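Pinned message: reference record for DUF630 domain-containing protein
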Amino acid sequence: MGCVGSKPEESPAVALCRQRCTFLDEAIHQRYALAEAHLAYCHSLKNVGVSLHRFFDIHSSAAVHGHGGDTPPSPVLNLPPQRKGESSKPPVTAPVHHHQHHDHSHSKFWLISPSLSL
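Predicted structure (tokens):
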């Protein structure tokens, strides 16, 4: 039924009802504000994703077609020295291929590890 037809000075229950209605109205307003902010966040994530995709497409196609200029050598990953008790084999260098599933580009990284053998 609500408390619309009641006078505020009639009882504490009516005052409590009005206060609860005010809180519910504010909660509804905040819920819509949260939904709107969440939607804006999702749109911004989509835009960042599109921008990153374009960036990597441009740079990967430039590198494949030789338009990238002088490209720096592939990075080398140096692993920490062997632990006590491990065999004392000399370090072996082996290529590690990184595959990106979106644009099928391949980057080579060199891994130096004492545990790898060719």
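Pinned by admin. Summary line: The mean pLDDT is 74.
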